[in-house]
Amino acid sequence: MPNILADSDDVGALATFIGYVRNDQGKVRGMSLEHYPGMAEQEVGKIALEAGQRWTLQVIQVIHRVGKLKPGEQIVFIGVASAHRTDAFAACEFIMDYLKTRAPFWKKELGCDGEYWVEQRQGDLERARRW
Prior knowledge:
The chain is an alpha+beta fold and 131 residues long.
């Protein structure tokens, strides 16, 4: 896990989120994550910038992996540090909601019965609309 607080002593709260590849009761052998190179990194930067404009934050770090991953491996890390927990929690949740709906990443589950693209969920869109 990255040390996102290395350069800050004004932090009173750190909120993190780590997303993993689920096994889904033995149905998933792995996942392949693809992205639009250049555009994905740019969109992640825009999402982080917007979080920094909405809340008072000292540090924002987002790491999103691509390629083939196995169940139990990390897909995404979000770390947000602020003086107060309210800003850190809200910004972390906002970033994840926007990554799920705005960033050009695509997931293909590699299951025991074949491969299929993971469709965007209506619940993810509804969560993002809250912001």
